[in-house]
Amino acid sequence: MRNLYLVLLLSIVVGCVQKEESKQLTFTEGQVIARGKQLVSLGACHDCHTPKVFNETGMHLDQSRLLSGHPFGSILPKIDEQVFRPGHWTYFNEHFTAAVGMWGMTFSKNLTPHETGLKGWTPEVFIATMRKGKHMGIESARPIMPPMPWENLKDLPDEDLIAIFKYLQSIQPVDNYVPEPMNPEQALAFKN
What we know:
Elements: H1 2-22, H2 29-42, H3 45-49, E1 52-55, E2 58-61, E3 91-92, E4 98-101, E5 104-107, H4 123-132, H5 158-170, H6 184-189
Antiparallel strand pairs: 1-2, 3-4, 4-5
């Protein structure tokens, strides 16, 4: 009799586990986009990819240019050559959208769904870019340059990367051309 109870109990447990495994969660497009927005916020993407405005209460995100990258035509200070040598500081502009360091100079990309941003990208290209750390996810392309922390994102599940991509595709497109990264020599010769 005791064995019968044990078999019955095991059958119930196995049945519950199988039932749980067969449940497939589905999310609406709105829920996926909301998750992407949350991940963009938690990942601090706005810190570098959104220009800032300054007023009497401090520094704030420029809501009209969310995630549009380094503002085209913004004036950058003269670069001290020391920054390209080991043992020196890395510098950012006042928006945190341009950085100079040992690698050269980089500008935060326009992540909006505009021609100057991510328009035309697919979820597959976005995922490959985040996984490989290469521009457009192409193995032979240039690397994604500092300070972009792509290595922090490369192990996210596909569902999270797709949610981020869908959120980025849902925001206001902003026409903002962003220069390509520059090596130290190009950075020193760069004129705003």
